[in-house]
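Figure 6 in text form: structure in, sequence out.
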């Protein structure tokens, strides 16, 4: 039985579901008992809200409390029949079919105290507020009939303050003070009495008239525009549907254009790949150095998503792997063999350029290596002579072979190993120069490196 657990905390005191009954609303205080914990577990229910309500009701009944303070819920979901749920999901795509909820609620005990009538409470608050407003505006002065005429003339003629007579300025200041007080009354009205209408207040009257206008009974009847609600709702829904259609249409056009561009790019790359395949196959048929470019083989790697182009990817990946294997196991050995044969042929044809004497410094002594003969089988005969500072010297015979590679010509010549200082010379022949090392047969003697120049060019190198 699979099970998914979710923990949810609700930051509220309680939730009361309204029903179609008439009742007198009450305002109550809640006494919290933090020493008393409340918890209960619901039955298996078909939805989460029903499970919460079941757990809440059981907890209230079991612990005899009025409300559960700071409730938290542990919500567990499981399938009543896992096999049936799997079949429903596969057949109809219904994920929640057979899903059941079990909720565990926990919180603190709360009890209702000091019940009061909601309307009586509101009357007291409104009465206190009306008295406060009446008191606040009780000192607002009144305009006399003559002063009202002056204000009307000043407003009609749009006379500026700096052009008024001193008497007119005093009347205008009094009028401004009344206006400020009235504005404050409107501010109180907009906050505490949003359903009243003060558009017809007497701008010359005192606070008694202004306060009376704050009574909700004086609000003016308004035009009933309820018939517009369905029209507005229809317009909103139609607008949403139209916007969704336009968005979906644009998205489809972009998606279609993207797919067409991808297919065109696939066709272009496919043509390039087929060209590379043909070029590589022709190169394998006529093996010469450079007839097949290794980069052409690597270019066969398909760069598109395998899920979108599985057939093409598999086809060319197999071709690429085949070519890579053939390239390394058949083509390259043939090319290297051909290159080695060409180097060997060139070497034999120019063998006399490698015969001669090469001289140079060797530590505190002088070393002379002479290559006397090179056979067609690349066997070498020669000798070496060490000359010391005091003028004494000794000569040893050399015999070995030439090692040809693609990039260089190496000599490996051995002394006869008759004395302790015999060893083997390994050097590279580069034009008129030998460069390499001497390795003694005796492991206790150190390796020596040298660079020798052809005898006739030896002094020219200094």
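Output sequence:
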């Amino acid at each position: 039985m699979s099970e998914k657990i979710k923990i949810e905390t609700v930051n509220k005191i309680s939730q009361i579901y309204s029903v179609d009954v008439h009742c007198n609303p009450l305002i109550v205080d809640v006494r919290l008992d933090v020493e008393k914990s409340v918890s209960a577990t619901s039955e298996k229910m078909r939805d989460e809200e029903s499970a919460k309500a079941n757990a809440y009701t059981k907890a209230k009944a079991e612990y005899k409390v009025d409300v559960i303070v700071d409730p938290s819920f542990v919500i567990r979901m499981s399938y009543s029949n896992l096999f049936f749920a799997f079949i429903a999901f596969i057949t109809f795509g219904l994920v929640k079919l057979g899903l059941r909820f079990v909720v565990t609620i926990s919180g603190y005990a709360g009890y209702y105290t000091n019940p009061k009538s909601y309307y009586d409470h509101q009357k007291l608050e409104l009465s206190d507020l009306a008295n406060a407003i009446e008191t606040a505006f009780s000192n607002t002065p009144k305009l006399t009939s003559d002063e009202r005429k002056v204000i009307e003339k000043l407003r009609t003629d749009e006379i500026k303050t700096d052009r008024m007579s001193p008497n007119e300025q005093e009347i205008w200041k009094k009028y401004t003070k009344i206006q400020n007080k009235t504005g404050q009354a409107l501010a109180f009205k907009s906050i505490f009495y949003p359903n009243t209408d003060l558009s017809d207040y007497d701008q010359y009257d005192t606070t008694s008239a202004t306060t009376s206008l704050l009574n909700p009974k004086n609000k003016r009847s308004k035009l009933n525009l309820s018939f517009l609600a369905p029209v507005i709702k229809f317009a909103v829904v139609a607008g949403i549907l139209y916007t969704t259609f336009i968005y979906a249409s644009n998205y489809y056009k972009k998606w279609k254009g993207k797919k067409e561009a991808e297919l065109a790019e696939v066709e272009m790359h496919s043509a390039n790949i087929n060209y590379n395949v043909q070029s590589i196959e022709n190169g394998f048929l006529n093996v010469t150095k450079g007839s097949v470019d290794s980069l052409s083989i690597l270019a066969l790697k398909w760069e598109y998503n395998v899920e979108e182009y599985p057939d093409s990817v598999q086809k060319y990946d197999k071709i690429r792997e085949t070519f890579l294997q053939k390239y390394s196991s058949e083509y390259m050995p043939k090319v290297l063999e051909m290159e080695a044969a060409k180097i060997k042929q060139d070497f034999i044809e120019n063998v006399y350029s490698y015969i001669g004497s090469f001289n140079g410094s060797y530590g505190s002594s002088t070393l002379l290596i002479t290559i006397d003969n090179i056979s067609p089988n690349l066997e070498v005969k020669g000798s070496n002579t060490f000359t010391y500072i005091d003028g004494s010297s000794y000569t040893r015979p050399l015999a070995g072979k030439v090692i040809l590679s693609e990039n260089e010509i190496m000599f490996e010549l051995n002394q006869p190993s008759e004395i302790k200082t015999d060893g083997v010379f390994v050097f590279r022949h580069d034009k008129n120069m030998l460069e390499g090392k001497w390795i003694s047969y005796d492991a206790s003697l150190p390796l020596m490196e040298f660079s020798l120049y052809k005898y006739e060019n030896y002094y020219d190198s200094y």
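Caption detail: Residues 351-461 form a domain with the Lipocalin fold (CATH 2.40.128.120).
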